[in-house]
Amino acid sequence: MKTALEQIKLQAISALESCHDIKELDDIRVKFLGKKGELTGILKMMGKLTAEERPAMGQLANEVRELIESSVASKLQSLKAEAMEAKLSSERIDVTMPGTKPTLGKPHPLTMVMDEIKEIFLGMGFSVESGPEVELDYYNFEALNIPKDHPARDTQDTFYINENIVLRTQTSPVQIRVMEKTEPPIRIIAPGRVYRSDAVDATHSPLFHQIEGLVVDKGVTMADLKGTLEIFVKQLYGEDAVVRFRPHHFPFTEPSAEVDVMCFSCGGKGCRLCKGEGWIEILGCGMVHPKVLQNCGIDPEVYSGFAFGLGLERVVMRRFNIDDLRLFFENDLRFLDQF
């Protein structure tokens, strides 16, 4: 047994000296010290020794075990240090070399123009309000003077959640919610996403963005509406922009108008961009209908107001001469990198 123990010690030391891998080291540990290892096998033979031989052999076996365990621990520490040194050497960088420039994101063209429009109206004393996109039928239609049997509902192509809840078709419900809880004077814009059941093509999408505005105060007139929108258009398109108002009809405003800007491509002569008309429609507007004010608890005999709404995608398409609305939602970097 003594000879066997000495042989195990020599074999273990030799194996450890030639070991260069942590996995290999663990295999050596199991081979000599594991439950089925060589040292364990020798110790199972202790029962065959005489009472006089056992103490000496037990002491020798313990010395061999301790030697192998300490040698394994020392070798493990050495291998870990070598591995760390190799990793540090392979990952060493020259801090004097120029770094790789990261690709930075930029505002989406819709966000860019949305922020610009917000700044224009903030500069005129408006505040920005928001509201839920899943809206009650009352706020989306009825409070805006569009009852359930009104023909205007047929043109809205509404997504209904149930009979009384819809995906908002416009941001006008925000105006109603603000008028219900705020005493005039009121001067707000309400930007946000809206939804209509339209087939997707170059000029239509079931999801798009609107920016609507509202002013309510004593003595507000159509002249105030006209002046505000002229300032907005000139800020957006330049001081040379020419604006015209055309009579129109909206259930929630009376009188109502649509606003056109003279085509900045042809100067009103007619071209492909303006479809030969010389003018490009950009928004609808009008004086807030007295019944709408009344629905919100505002006395139409004391207060008056105006409202307007524009489609963000339409403005951005004309700003950058984009002819396909789908480009805004496809996240094609070849398109987005141009902005």
Blueprint of the fold:
Blueprint: H1 2-17, H2 22-33, H3 38-43, H4 53-90, H5 109-123, E1 127-128, E2 134-136, H6 137-140, E3 160-162, E4 165-167, H7 172-181, E5 186-195, E6 207-217, H8 222-237, E7 243-250, E8 253-262, E9 279-288, H9 290-295, E10 304-311, H10 312-320, H11 333-336
Characterise this structure.
- The protein is an alpha+beta fold and 339 residues long.
- It has 2 domains: 2-90; 109-336, 2-Layer Sandwich (BirA Bifunctional Protein, domain 2), CATH 3.30.930.10.
- It contains 11 helices and 10 strands.
- The chain has helices at 2-17, 22-33, 38-43, 53-90, 109-123, 137-140, 172-181, 222-237, 290-295, 312-320, 333-336, and strands at residues 127-128, 134-136, 160-162, 165-167, 186-195, 207-217, 243-250, 253-262, 279-288, 304-311.
- The strands form 2 sheets. It has a 7-stranded mixed beta sheet with strand order 1-5-6-10-9-8-7, with helices on both faces.
- Helix 1 packs parallel to helix 4, helix 2 (22-33) runs antiparallel to helix 4 and helix 5 packs across helix 10.
- The longest helix is centred in the first third of the chain and has 38 residues, at 53-90.
- The chain is elongated, with a radius of gyration of 40 Å.
- The termini are far apart.
- The mean pLDDT is 86.
